[in-house]
Write a structure and sequence with these properties.
Layout (H helix, E strand, L loop, with lengths): L3 E4 L5 H16 L5 H12 L5 E8 L2 E13 L4 E11 L8 H14 L4 E6 L6 H9 L15
Parallel strand pairs: 4-5
Antiparallel strand pairs: 1-2, 2-3, 3-4
Helix pairs in contact: 1-2
Length: 150
């Protein structure tokens, strides 16, 4: 399968919204409102200082996508790239789509001297995803994620 990895654009909006809805259903059994996702994806596309989406295109179809956001680290005097919203359509799973997307992320990160590394968070029970990330060289950290929603 030939894949083209490219930055997402507004023409990818419907696919990105659908990917995020499917991701939330599959990983958290959560229904996310399309209106919120539509606004959220458009908001990110309009604000490249916050991050970017990459998509994997196979022919005329998008096989998958991911989002990269940025975090400044005062300890490292540089930026960490957070990989988020990873989704691969079921028909394309197990065919190297995520590997191609993550390779593109690493290549872009390596070309920017201020980037110190890539991070992501994954559901504790999502062992399949954890195995994929480990195969690509990522390691678990000693950190837990806490949050308080406002």
């Amino acid at each position: 399968m030939a894949l083209a990895i490219r930055p997402a654009h507004q023409g990818d909006l419907d696919d990105l919204v659908g990917f995020n809805q499917a991701l939330a259903r599959e990983t958290e059994n959560r229904a996310l409102p399309a209106e919120t996702l539509h606004s959220g994806v458009l908001g990110l596309l309009a604000r490249p200082q916050y991050g970017f989406y990459l998509v994997a295109q196979s022919g005329d179809a998008l096989a998958g996508a991911l989002l990269v956001t940025f975090e400044w680290s005062d300890w490292r005097d540089g930026v960490y790239w957070w990989v988020q919203s990873v989704y691969v359509r079921p028909a394309y799973r197990g065919q190297g789509v995520y590997r191609a997307l993550y390779s593109a992320v690493k290549a872009r990160a390596a070309a920017q001297p201020e980037v110190r590394g890539c991070r992501l968070y994954v559901e504790q029970d999502n062992l399949t995803a954890q195995q994929v990330y480990a195969k690509l060289g990522m390691k678990p950290t000693g950190y837990l994620v806490y949050e308080e929603l406002l």
